Amino acid sequence: MRQSKLFTKTLKQSPKDAVSASHKFLVQGGYVDMLMAGVYTYLPMGWNVIRKISDIVRVEMNKCEAQEMLMPALQSRGIWDETGRWDGALSDVMYQFKDRSGKDMGLAATHEEVIYDIVRRNIMSYKDLPFAIYQIQNKFRNELRAKGGLMRGREFMMKDLYSFHLSQEDLDVYYDKMIQAYKNVYAKCGLDSKVVEASGGMFTEKYSHEFQVISDAGEDNIIYCDTCDYAQNSEISKFKVGDKCPKCSASLKEGKSIEVGNIFQFGDKYAKDMKGYATDSDGVKKPILMASYGIGISRLVATIVEKYHDDQGIIWPEAVAPFKVHLLSLKQNEEAEKYYKILREEGIEVLYDDRDISAGEKFTDADLIGIPFRLVVSSKTGDKVEIKKRDNDKAELMSIEEFIKKIKE
Predict the structure, then answer these.
(1) Best label site of 30, 69, 137, 215, fewest CB within 10 Å?
(2) Do 156 and 125 share a domain, yes or no?
(3) What one-character-per-residue DSSP string does 305-367 give?
(4) Is residue 284 located within the same domain as residue 399?
């Protein structure tokens, strides 16, 4: 992609209302554009990052034999009345309105009711269970504190998966399998996640599990152990900093954290509310048990930036970067045009800064945008390119062929 043709430009100044590094750099770097508080357009580079993360998520969900689909964001009141959530747990956060005919409608804050309605009309026998279904779709929640860029939105992108079972034992097995899948997702995105026991909140009365990343930009507080995997949300924990870990007796710590995912076991709640049953191998009707599993895709973008940045801008991990290489041509160097063509022919994602601006401006933008490899071509580099990783101050000269071989190893 030629940077001169890239839709939208970097900004000289960060947004005045930016309260976090991710908000500042994602807007200033041309990744997102704010329409209003909590509502953002993902610009081309931002959408590239979203796609990379979504693909990582898809790989791990597909490994767990989940099937991808897409459910409607516009929902009718009826199915929500069956569970009592239209006037109950979700009434404060769900956007609710009447259509032109006077019928009550809502925008999806979540999709448990929709998917369970489909399941109860299609699953009749143990032969159809267990199974899991997921989607990647925008959700809508009427947040009172829609601030911090992509960290807390009114419209945001989410992966939500739902699994269905005839026994608690089977549900538990899949639930544990999904915990590992989530850990894999975050690790591939460069994040160290903690599995945290938490309250079910507005979704279930049972305990749930959150996936948290330690960060000063976080809105949550967790009590955790660095020696083992014990962690609890501070809101439900009876422990405090310095107490002995109940699992390994090490000293517990407390830290601010960002929630990047959560999972819930609903058990037979939806079976009772929405009358979803299937016959077992003996012909006995049993409730279809459900659990749900969510990952905030857009929040994950912000979380990665909170972890990977410096004073100049973003430092993207290679797996989620919008491009792998940022090629800078100083004074319209003809060699740069040749290298741009070679990189593309090799299938390497490259952003080519061919703009007629100063070298200083190009270097500043490169640091702000944060692409993993910066390649500089100038009259001083001769038949080589100057290569520097975004997370390293050291630069080196090598041929374009040597560089391609290096990054393909």
Answers:
(1) 69
(2) yes
(3) HHHSB-SS-B---GGG-S-SEEEEESSS-HHHHHHHHHHHHTT--EEEE--SS-HHHHHHHHH
(4) no
Do 268 and 335 reside in the same domain of the chain? no
Q: Based on the domain organization, do 84 and 189 belong to the same domain?
A: yes
Name the one residue in this structure whose structure tokens are 């898809």: 58
pLDDT per residue over 113-139, tens digit each? 999 999 999 999 999 999 999 999 999
Mean pLDDT of 323-327: 98
Strand pairing report for 67-68 and 131-140: parallel
DSSP codes of every residue in 226-278: SSSS-EEETTT-S--TTSBPTTT-PBPEEEEEEEEEEEEEEETHHHHHHT-EE
Predicted pLDDT at 201: 54
In angstroms, the Cα distances linking 46 to 32, 237, 260 are 6, 37, 18
386, 375 contact by CB (below 8 A): yes
What CATH number is associated with residue 388? 3.40.50.800
Distance CA 25, CA 11 (A): 10
Q: In terms of DSSP bridges, do strands 289-296 and 155-165 run parallel, antiparallel, or are they unpaired?
A: antiparallel
pLDDT digits (tens, 9 = 90+) for 235-256: 899 999 999 999 999 999 999 9
pLDDT digit string (tens) for 347-359?
999 999 999 999 9
Q: How many domains does the chain have?
A: 2
Helix (H, G, I), strand (E, B) or coil at 89: coil
The two three-digit tokens of residue 232, written as one number: 């609890």
| Rounded average pLDDT over 148-154 | 90
Rounded to an integer, what distance in angstroms lies between the CA atom of residue 32 and that of residue 115? 31
DSSP 8-class letter at 169: H
- Residue 228 lies inside a defined structural domain of this protein: no
Structural domain boundaries enclosing 398: 323-407
Structure tokens of 61?
């969900």
Closest CA to 52 of 331, 318, 335: 318
By CB neighbour count within 10 A (0-12 exposed, 13-18 middle, 19+ buried), where does 131 fall?
middle
Question: 376 with 283, same domain?
Answer: no
Contact 291, 265 (CB under 8 A): yes
